[in-house]
C-alpha cells in the first residue's frame, strides 16, 4: 500500500568547486535534489550561497573539521586541529589526532556557523558533519552544544537500515561505515538531550524526524535507480515493522520522513576546487557525474510519484 513519504535529498559539499555547484543546481532544477549542505570553507562557497539565493534552494551547513583550511582566523596560525602545513588532518588523520586530544573545535564550528550566516543571510536550519565527523565521541558533545546555542534544530545521524546487507562495499570502506554507525548509535542520547531533532525514532525524546537516513550504500559508483529504490523500500518496510511506543502515533498513521545523502556534480578540474588544498580524487572522478545522471533519471522521478514520495527540505517537516 502507499502511504505518504517525505524525502529530503541533500546534495552535500555545495561550495566545493564551481562544477560541483553547477551539478547540484542542475539537480535541484530537475527536481532531483531538494536540499543542500554548504561547505563554508569550500573554494566556491560564496558562489554557492549566491546560487542558493537565486534559485531559492534550501540550504544548511556541512560543518568541516577534516578537509582543507579553517575559517576561524585565530586557528589559522596555531591549532591542534591543523597539521604542520596548516590544513585539517584529513578524514582518517582527524580521527587519529582526536585520540591524542584535540582543541578549538568549538571555536571553529561557531566560526563556520557565523560565516554561513554572513554568506546566506540566515542561520542554517540543519547542520551535519563533512565525512561524518560530528558523531565521533570527542566531537558529538561540542557539536550538540553549538547546535543548541544557535537554535539549529536538525542534524544527521548516519545509521542506515540496509548497511549490513550490502555485499558490494569493499571491506576497508565497510569497516569505516560500521565505525560511523557505532558512533552514531552512541550519539543519539547526546543529541536528544540537547533538544536536537534526529533521524531515528527515539520515543522518549519527543523528537522523531527524519525517521530514516540513506546514503552510505548508494554513494558514487554504487548508486543506481534500483539501488536507491530498494534502499528506500526496505528502509520503509523495516521502519513500519517497528512497534510504536504507547505515546507515538503508529507508523501507518503518519508521514515517514527520509534523508537521502547524495554527492552529485560535474567532476572537479584541478587546481580549481577543494577547501584550500585543491580537489580530492572523489571530486575529480566520474562518480560525481554518475550520481547526477542517476538522480535525474526520469525512471527514478516516476518511482517517487508512484510511491507518493514527496521531495522536501528540513524546513518543510
UniProtKB/TrEMBL annotation:
Give the signal peptide, or none.
none
Q: Per its UniProt record, what Gene3D superfamilies does this chain match?
A: Glycoside hydrolase/deacetylase
Please indicate if the UniProt record lists Hydrolase as a keyword.
yes
User: Which GO molecular function annotations are given, in alphabetical order?
Assistant: deacetylase activity; hydrolase activity; metal ion binding
Name any one Pfam family assigned in the record: YdjC
**Keyword Metal-binding belongs to the record:** yes
User: Which GO BP terms, alphabetically?
Assistant: carbohydrate metabolic process
- The protein's required cofactors: Mg(2+)
**Keyword annotations:** Carbohydrate metabolism, Hydrolase, Magnesium, Metal-binding
* PANTHER family with a match to the protein in the record: CARBOHYDRATE DEACETYLASE, YDJC DEACETYLASE FAMILY MEMBER
- Which family does the UniProt entry place this protein in? Belongs to the YdjC deacetylase family.
Role according to the record: Probably catalyzes the deacetylation of acetylated carbohydrates an important step in the degradation of oligosaccharides.
Q: What is this protein called?
A: Carbohydrate deacetylase
Gene source species: Amazona collaria
Amino acid at each position: 500500500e502507499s502511504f505518504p513519504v517525505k524525502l529530503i535529498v541533500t546534495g552535500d559539499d555545495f561550495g566545493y568547486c564551481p562544477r560541483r555547484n553547477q551539478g547540484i543546481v542542475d539537480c535541484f532544477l530537475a527536481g532531483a535534489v531538494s536540499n543542500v549542505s554548504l561547505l563554508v570553507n569550500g573554494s566556491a562557497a560564496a558562489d554557492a550561497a549566491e546560487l542558493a539565493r537565486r534559485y531559492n534552494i534550501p540550504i544548511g551547513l556541512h560543518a568541516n573539521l577534516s578537509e582543507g583550511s579553517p575559517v576561524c582566523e585565530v586557528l589559522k596560525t596555531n591549532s591542534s586541529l591543523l597539521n604542520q602545513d596548516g590544513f585539517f588532518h584529513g578524514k582518517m588523520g582527524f580521527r587519529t589526532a582526536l585520540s591524542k586530544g584535540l582543541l578549538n573545535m568549538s571555536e571553529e564550528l561557531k566560526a563556520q556557523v557565523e560565516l554561513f550566516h554572513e554568506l546566506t543571510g540566515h542561520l542554517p536550519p540543519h547542520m551535519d558533519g563533512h565525512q561524518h565527523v560530528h558523531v565521533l565521541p570527542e566531537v558529538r558533545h561540542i557539536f550538540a552544544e553549538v547546535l543548541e546555542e544557535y537554535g539549529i534544530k536538525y542534524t544527521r545521524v548516519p545509521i542506515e537500515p540496509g548497511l549490513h546487507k550490502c555485499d558490494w562495499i569493499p571491506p576497508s570502506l565497510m569497516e569505516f561505515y560500521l565505525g560511523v554507525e557505532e558512533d552514531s548509535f552512541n550519539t543519539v542520547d547526546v543529541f536528544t538531550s540537547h533538544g536536537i531533532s534526529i533521524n531515528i525514532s527515539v520515543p522518549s525524546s519527543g523528537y522523531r524526524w527524519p525517521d530514516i537516513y540513506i546514503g552510505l550504500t548508494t554513494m558514487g559508483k554504487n548508486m543506481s535507480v534500483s539501488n536507491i529504490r530498494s534502499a528506500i523500500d526496505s528502509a520503509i518496510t523495516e521502519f513500519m515493522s517497528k512497534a510504536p511506543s504507547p505515546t507515538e502515533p503508529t507508523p501507518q498513521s503518519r508521514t515517514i520522513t527520509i534523508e537521502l545523502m547524495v554527492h552529485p556534480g560535474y567532476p572537479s578540474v584541478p587546481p580549481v576546487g577543494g577547501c584550500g588544498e585543491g580537489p580530492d580524487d572523489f571530486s575529480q572522478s566520474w562518480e560525481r557525474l554518475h550520481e547526477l545522471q542517476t538522480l535525474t533519471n526520469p525512471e527514478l522521478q516516476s518511482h517517487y510519484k508512484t510511491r507518493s514520495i514527496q521531495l522536501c527540505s528540513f524546513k518543510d517537516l
